[in-house]
Specification:
It is built from eleven helices and seven strands. By secondary structure, the chain is α+β, with helices and mostly antiparallel strands. The protein has a five-stranded mixed sheet with strand order 2-4-5-7-6, covered by helices on one side. α4 packs antiparallel against α5, α6 packs across α8 and α8 runs antiparallel to α10. The radius of gyration is 34 Å and the shape is elongated.
Length: 334
């Protein structure tokens, strides 16, 4: 802060230096004034001014150093006492504005929480007629019409499900129940839910789970798999999707491999970004750019690493790497 202090006092320092130079100039042009005594006096003035600046520096910067540290706490009680009227002006202005912003922030947060609760309640309310609609669709006599309606029904269901989990993810830590989870029931449940999309497109699943259990939260793992499987089905045609688990380096690795259109090299690094829809998704207009993003966000608190590899025209492999059990316990205990 010494540089900032000298810059702040620059005009005063220039004035003092200019006065000393002016005295020396007068002594040099006026023969009646002895130059050496004046030079000695100027030298003493410089020493005194330097000592004064060094002594005043800690006192005049103490308040501003406390102001820098205060940014982390936002507690007005942590402000030290001011030493000058100008510091008092700064302190009062900062505290008054901080209290106002804090009040506005609390009101905004309360409003946001209220809107979130209302939206979650609305989603749950919508799910009731949506379930009734599913039962009505299943009773339709025509299979062709039934399939088309179930296809659109599933799209609505997934969009509501994404919205519900998107609002829950910031508070996901409060909703976790970590236990040994069998992969087969979770995978099969998500595959069955997609049958109305898979049958018209002729898509099948090849499930091979060498590792049968992982330490995770079953509900959130199902949500993550839902996004990955939905993405694989959406961009595949008349080909099987392979779901496999194996052990690698002490980690359980779950892969979902499709033989669809693949992802371009420019798009691949961005597929987990919020709202990114890729070139094909933008052309088709059906993609929201939220599925893989939400899967990535949900995987974080579970210490699951998501990766993707793809070759355009050959397919895409999405990978979930689960943490070792001892790593999960250690990270949870930190």
């Amino acid at each position: 802060m010494i540089g900032q202090y000298l810059k702040e006092r620059r005009s005063w320092l220039i004035l003092l230096a200019g006065l000393q130079l002016f005295i020396l100039f007068v002594a040099s042009v006026d023969s009646s004034i002895p130059f050496l005594p004046v030079l000695y006096i100027v030298f003493l003035n410089v020493l005194v001014c330097t000592a004064f600046v060094l002594l005043r520096y800690p006192r005049e910067t103490r308040f501003y150093k406390s102001l820098q540290a205060w940014d982390q706490s936002w507690d007005s009680g942590a402000f030290r006492e001011t030493d000058s009227p100008f510091e008092q002006v700064v302190q009062e202005a900062v505290i008054s504005r901080t209290e106002r912003f804090r009040s506005e922030g609390a009101a905004g947060l309360q409003l946001l929480e209220q809107e979130k609760d209302e939206l979650l309640a609305w989603i749950h309310e919508v799910k009731t007629p949506l379930t009734a609609l599913q039962l009505m669709i299943e009773r339709l006599p025509g299979e062709a019409m039934q399939g088309k309606m179930m296809y659109e029904w599933l799209r609505i269901h997934h969009l509501l499900d994404q919205q519900l989990h998107q609002k829950r993810i910031p508070f996901m830590q409060n909703d976790l129940y970590v236990e040994k989870v069998r992969l087969e029931p979770v995978v099969n449940q998500e595959i069955r839910a997609l049958k109305s999309w898979c049958i018209p497109k002729g898509i099948g699943f090849d499930v091979s789970l060498e590792v049968e259990e992982v330490l995770t939260d079953a509900k959130w793992l199902g949500f993550i798999l839902r996004q990955l499987l939905t993405n694989a089905v959406k961009y595949s045609d008349s080909s099987d999707i392979a779901v496999q688990s194996r052990e690698s380096g002490g980690h359980t690795v779950l892969t979902i491999a499709d033989r669809g259109r693949g992802i371009g090299p420019k798009d691949l690094p961005r597929i987990f970004d919020k709202g990114f829809t890729s070139t094909l998704g933008r052309q088709e207009g059906g993609a929201t750019g939220m599925g893989l993003y939400l899967a990535k966000q949900a995987a974080g608190p579970l210490f699951i690493t998501i990766g993707a590899e793809s070759v355009p025209g050959e397919g895409t492999v999405l990978t979930l790497v689960f943490p070792r059990e001892n790593e999960f316990v250690r990270m949870e205990g930190m």
